[in-house]
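note to self — DONT lose this again. spent like an hour looking for the file last time. sequence + predicted structure for the chain T wanted, 149 res
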Amino acid sequence: MEFTPDKLETTLIYPTTENGGIENRKYTLTHSDETGMLFLDIGDVYNYSAIDTDMRDEVLGRWISPKNEQPMLLFYVYVGDGDFEENSRRYQIFKSHMDMAIAAVIYSDSVLFDTYPELINSAIYVKFDSVIPTFDNYEYYGCVKDYLM
């Protein structure tokens, strides 16, 4: 699935600004199955009120800055606590949409990368969270510059 900018609505949650730093910068990406719209909230906290607690199909992201290393962008998805078949289905759905989700976040936060161009070399990882060990892992998704439009 490919990212389409006109299907994205971004909200900055005060006190976060477009060109603010990455410390405590968090992303909450949700969507509408009916319209295909993506909704991204950027703030210093996750927007838990936007998450459908029955579906749990959100993508959460945050910057982490290991000591004396390049910052990294870490995303989190909840694969689930169901059986193997259910977790396998959800894992494959998340994987098929992850590039689009990452592209939406990078696109929406382009002012941040204009302000801090060194961040374009930051690595991106996704934490898939599952009770089934096969689907409970971290995966490397390239660098920010791979998703710049």
